[in-house]
Write a structure and sequence with these properties.
Structural class of chain A: alpha+beta
Low-confidence stretches of chain B: none
Number of helices of chain B: 5
Distance between the termini of chain A: 30 Å
Strand order of the largest sheet of chain A: 1-2-8-7-6-5-4-3
Oligomer: heterodimer
Largest sheet of chain A: 8 strands, antiparallel
Helix content of chain A: 25-40%
Number of helices of chain A: 3
Strand order of the largest sheet of chain B: 1-2
Strand content of chain B: 5-15%
Mean pLDDT of chain B: 81
């Protein structure tokens, strides 16, 4: 499964780059990123979290809102707006995480490119400054740690 | 790392992890940290003591205040953050692989 290996890197002071290959067409991968019923099946982060609210209006100027819950009274949400939408090819959107205080705006460009029988997805995030970029990575750490501890609890 | 146990026990609490996330954006005082978490300053101070003993934060004296910041070499290392974020994203994309595989199967059944 090395073909699907993900990369995650920082670029300069304000960017984060993610690449991942999928064994499906760009159309299908694009749909999985824009259809609420499909998004709710996979964009969940750590084990045990669900997305009870998923609103996504994927067109220029359209808004989205994703709400996550761990079923134990903890949760947070992301709101955003689509800037550019080229179906099956490219999405540019702005997002803010609410924890509940809103985080600085993250500009995300996602490109879906045919790669043989599959799709190469490239995501480029741009934060306003280095402190915001680093805080966003630390927030990812916070959520990821939750998953590690859930697994650890299961092993003990 | 000799204090790995204290690091892990310090990180086992969600408030302390949230404090570290906040400090990633820059130095903060106890009062600034207490506000968004909605818990008392003494409670925040107890969390800060645990984080300090684990070597994850450092505090300096500035008059009556003791502002905190992430300790160099602690979890502040960006590579560690990337590593944990990578695992969280990989879980998402592994789920997406399964969703896409199911859709492909269903389409094959239809044709």
């Amino acid at each position: 499964m090395t073909m699907t290996k993900m990369t995650l890197d920082t670029e300069g002071d304000t960017h984060v780059l993610v690449t991942r290959r999928f064994a499906a067409s760009p159309e299908a991968v694009y749909r999985a990123h824009t259809e609420p019923s499909t998004i709710q099946k996979w964009l969940l982060g750590p084990e045990g979290w669900t997305m009870p609210v998923c609103l996504c209006d994927a067109r220029p100027g359209g808004k989205f809102r994703y709400e996550w819950s761990n079923g134990k009274g903890q949760g947070f949400y992301i709101t955003g707006e689509f800037v550019e939408v080229e179906p099956s090819r490219r999405i540019v959107h702005l997002e803010r995480m609410h924890l509940p205080d809103p985080t600085p705006e993250n500009l995300v460009e996602t490109v879906f490119e045919a790669d043989g029988e599959g799709t190469m997805m490239r995501m480029r995030m741009t934060l306003p400054d280095k402190a915001s970029r680093d805080a966003m990575l630390a927030t990812g750490m916070e959520r990821g740690m939750e998953a590690s501890y859930v697994r650890l609890e299961g092993m003990i | 790392m000799e204090n790995l146990d204290s690091t892990f026990s310090a990180l086992s609490d969600s408030t302390r992890r949230a404090i570290l996330s906040r400090l990633a954006a820059g130095e903060a005082t106890v009062m600034e940290l207490a506000r968004p978490f909605g818990i008392s300053q003494p409670a925040i101070s107890r969390h800060l003591r645990v984080l300090e003993e684990a070597g994850l934060i450092t505090r300096r004296i500035e008059g009556a205040k003791r502002p905190c910041r992430l300790a160099p070499g602690g979890i502040a290392e960006i590579d560690q953050w990337l590593g944990v974020l990578r695992r969280a994203l990989e879980m998402n994309y592994a789920r997406l692989d399964r969703v896409l595989a199911e859709q492909t199967d269903n389409e094959r059944k239809k044709t």
